[in-house]
Amino acid sequence: MTDTSSNDTRAGGDPRPRQGETLGEMGGIVDLGMPAPGGAFDDHNPPDSALIGDCVHCGFCLPTCPTYALWGEEMDSPRGRIYLMKQGLEGEPMTDSMVEHWDACLGCMACVTACPSGVQYDTLIEQTRNQVERHHERSAGEKALRGLIFALFPHPRRLRLMRGPLRAMQATGLDRALRRTGLLERMSPQLAAMESLAPRLGRPEPLPPYIDAIGQRRAVVGLLTGCVQGAFFPGVNSATARVLRAEGMDVVVPQAQGCCGALSAHNGREEEAQDYARRLVDAFDVARVDYVVVNAAGCGSTMKEYAALLADDPAYAERARSFADKVRDVSEILDELGPVAPRHPLEMSVAYHDACHLSHAQGVRAQPRRLLEAIPGLELKEIAEAELCCGSAGIYNIINPEPARELGDRKAANIVATGAQVLVTANPGCLMQVTSAIERSGHPMGMAHTIEVLDASIQGAGAGVFAPTPAAR
């Protein structure tokens, strides 16, 4: 990434620390109330000045921030980005350089976990991105790319329509031939990244609207099938339904459900995210379930925040709060209720990758590990630099392919170093990103969602189902 921090300006000069000066020595942050006139932000939910004031610029976030780890640039660290937010509140106009630094953030929330002061950076960056999308004029190319992404990925039906052509390309080898020419890379690195991340597609596995529990019913749960998960990883949804059923849960699959709004919420498309949230609340209200179960980390983190997302909507505020209280990651609900289905041995070693929006945003770390460790014969291995994002981050690896690739390769090296036979994680974006990086590393491994490993153990399928397939890239 080009270092443009020298273009950041404030009244009186350069915002960056002078030589020998830290951000913490540049003056305290006061409660500014409404943004200063003429500044970067309007008065509709600007970055919260009180939350900005919580940051004491201690630097504990720096080692966990992916972009700071890559570039060592202060303004590409959480505390640097918070300082730019402060500038905007104080009256500095929104500049291209400010937006570049905010856009470079992966939104991984590792800084939230690391922060000893409890700074709510997740709230601040989403508030800021909402402002950016309202007030910053992007280039024609950026608009076109983002328009394509949001016309496709939040729409399950459109993604399912893509399956046929994509499977045909993969079956004939046309995708590999196109990749070898380098033509798409030269035309658009972003589109090339999108194509290279596409998983090898199997057969579709549609789920019925209602699936009865095996044995005594312990709960009635609704299952989010998701957008990318449902279209590109249907086997994960099928495995989720089987495991929930085996553990004594009736599973409701609302046919009217659509996108949860996670991609929109994380990228400043506030009204769009709110619309998706309302529709999903409606779909699951009709289902009348005890819990709403999610097997995609990014979706779960957003759905748990629906109360905040719809707080200003009098028709949905209370319904959104009730909905959010029911949301559970699949590992949470299984750990919370405890096992009843017997586990069969899986003689294999597994490296577990913490999806950022599961570990940092939701605080779900121990539950998936407990579930995996309870499988006879399975050896769980930890990954170095576990707190660092793999570079997927929703649409980040499409919008910013170069740093995403660097982070993916760094993550792949740490995974390979464990010597594990299978990489396990809990998010479709991570699976696509890490699979691509592992293939580049030349060290083939099996890849699986956490729930697929549990399903294999309950079904007695054996470890062989996770043997790596020949690289097709």
Automatic annotation (TrEMBL):
Keywords: 4Fe-4S, Electron transport, Iron, Iron-sulfur, Metal-binding, Oxidoreductase, Repeat, Transport
Chemical reaction(s) catalysed: (R)-lactate + A = pyruvate + AH2; glycolate + A = glyoxylate + AH2
Spans annotated as Disordered: 1-27
Gene3D superfamilies: Alpha-helical ferredoxin
InterPro entries referenced in this protein's UniProt entry, alphabetically: 4Fe4S_Fe-S-bd (IPR017896), 4Fe4S_Fe_S_CS (IPR017900), Cys_rich_dom (IPR004017), Glc_ox_4Fe-4S (IPR012257), Helical_ferredxn (IPR009051)
Keyword field contains Oxidoreductase: yes
Cofactor: [4Fe-4S] cluster
EC nos: 1.1.99.14
PROSITE patterns listed in its UniProt record: 4FE4S_FER_1, 4FE4S_FER_2
Domain 4Fe-4S ferredoxin-type as annotated: residue spans: 45-75, 95-119
UniProt GO molecular function: glycolate dehydrogenase activity
Keyword Iron-sulfur attached: yes
Co-factor binding details: Binds 2 [4Fe-4S] clusters.
Role, per record: Component of a complex that catalyzes the oxidation of glycolate to glyoxylate.
Name of the protein: Glycolate oxidase iron-sulfur subunit
Source organism: Nocardioides kribbensis
Phylogenetic lineage: Bacteria, Bacillati, Actinomycetota, Actinomycetes, Propionibacteriales
Annotated gene: glcF
